[in-house]
């Protein structure tokens, strides 16, 4: 082959490779600085082993949409970002249609079934994982109980129900979820639903600050469809307000540190009113009179009535409940087509609902905690429904069909809750 022929082939090959080489060069370029200052906090490690998945190409990017860019320009200084950098970051968020579907409540009139809901979470595999989690973190759980007054089993239960002990922490990019719900909340809304876009815009603000304060990559952080993150599924605002450095390594890490998650859950509950040694609920038979029962149910989960008011309405409290000092709430747990189950909830029951605003969720946390503590004391992996409650009375047992398929989405862990 002549020299001129070789030069011609080389020139042709380089011309063909030019686009690919340009792409590789672009990918190798460093990303522009997102914040005015990254701070000096030790960056958190992203959890998992596997790299975060890039959203499917089918999910459209928000791009330089007017309302999102106006948000960036208006908020940049307060959030600690350069306006141009924040615009570039938010433009990379992608609309997630599945997030829009998941955030909506269940169909109106959908029957609630405490028995089905209970079985969905209080089952052998999750309890076995809970025993392992408790064994691995015995010292941290004991320290949290001593410091904040929240029983170790309640802390372990919340983490187990929220993420199956770190197995299910969410696969959505938090930036995508919060931008979708903040700027494209479902519309029109079904009957009974409300527009919570402003709530999620505020959580987007909190997430951007959280990322900057901790040196996190906001494009890599993953969580639930509503933007909750880590072992305890904290929303960004709650992470900033209630998460703590419980392992003493100098930074708060709810993604990789189980100890930080334990301390943060306990701190959240204490900050929301948990009282050391107070039972969560008592057994109760509601009034036979429908109108009297309806009056007791008016306050929902908020304790507002004392023992005398319960008795005057015709309710029959357990012996332990009769000795209670302080307000109570009549809690109704529907059982599908069967008769509802009732308990008298205390301020500690109400505190659990601040983590997730559902009485079914709160009772699942309490029942799981009771059973987990019972298994641990017994040193057995055999399922037992008898339990030894952290409350003054025995667990509330499901008496109707408990087919898991009957669990209702409206009261499943909602990711927003109060945390």
From TrEMBL:
It comes from the Bacteria. Keywords: Signal. It holds the Pfam family SLT_2. Residues 1-35 form the signal peptide. Residues 65-369 form the Transglycosylase SLT domain. InterPro entries: Lysozyme-like_dom_sf, Lytic_transglycosylase_MltB, MltB-like, SLT_2, TAT_signal. PANTHER family: MEMBRANE-BOUND LYTIC MUREIN TRANSGLYCOSYLASE B. This is Lytic murein transglycosylase B. It comes from Roseateles amylovorans.
């Amino acid at each position: 082959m002549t020299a001129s022929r070789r030069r011609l082939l080389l020139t042709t090959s380089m011309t063909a490779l030019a686009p690919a080489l340009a792409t590789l060069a672009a990918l190798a370029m460093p990303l522009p600085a997102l914040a005015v200052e990254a701070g000096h906090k030790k960056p958190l490690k992203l959890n998992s082993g596997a790299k975060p998945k890039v959203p499917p190409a089918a999910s459209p990017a928000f791009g330089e949409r007017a309302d999102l860019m106006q948000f960036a320009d208006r908020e940049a200084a307060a959030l600690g970002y350069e306006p141009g950098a924040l615009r570039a970051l938010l433009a990379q968020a992608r609309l997630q249609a599945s997030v829009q579907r998941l955030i909506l409540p269940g169909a109106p009139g959908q029957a609630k079934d405490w028995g089905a809901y209970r079985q969905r979470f209080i089952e052998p595999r999750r309890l076995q994982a809970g025993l392992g989690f408790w064994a691995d973190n015995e010292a941290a759980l004991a320290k949290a109980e001593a410091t904040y007054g929240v029983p170790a089993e309640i802390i372990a239960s919340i983490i187990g129900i929220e993420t199956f002990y770190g197995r299910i922490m969410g696969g959505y990019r938090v930036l995508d979820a919060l931008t979708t719900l903040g700027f494209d909340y479902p519309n029109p809304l079904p009957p009974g639903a409300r527009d919570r876009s402003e709530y999620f815009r505020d959580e987007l603000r909190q997430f951007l600050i959280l990322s900057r304060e901790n040196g996190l990559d906001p494009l890599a952080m993953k969580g639930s469809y509503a933007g909750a993150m880590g072992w305890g599924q904290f929303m960004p605002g709650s992470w900033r307000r209630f998460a703590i450095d419980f392992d003493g390594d100098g930074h708060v890490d709810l993604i990789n540190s189980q100890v930080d998650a334990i301390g943060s859950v306990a701190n959240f509950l204490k900050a929301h009113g948990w009282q050391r040694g107070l039972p969560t609920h008592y057994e109760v038979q509601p009034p036979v009179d429908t109108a009297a029962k309806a009056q007791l149910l008016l306050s929902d989960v908020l304790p507002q009535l004392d023992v005398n008011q319960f008795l005057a309405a015709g309710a029959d409290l357990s012996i332990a409940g009769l000795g209670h000092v302080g307000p109570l709430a009549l809690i109704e747990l529907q059982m599908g087509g069967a008769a509802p189950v009732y308990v008298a909830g205390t301020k500690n029951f109400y505190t659990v609902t601040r983590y997730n605003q559902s009485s079914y969720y709160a009772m699942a946390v309490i029942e799981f905690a009771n059973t987990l503590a019972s298994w641990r004391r017994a040193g057995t992996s055999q399922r037992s429904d008898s339990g030894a409650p952290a409350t003054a009375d025995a667990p509330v047992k499901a008496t109707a069909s408990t087919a898991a398929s009957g669990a209702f989405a409206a009261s499943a862990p909602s990711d927003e809750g109060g945390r």
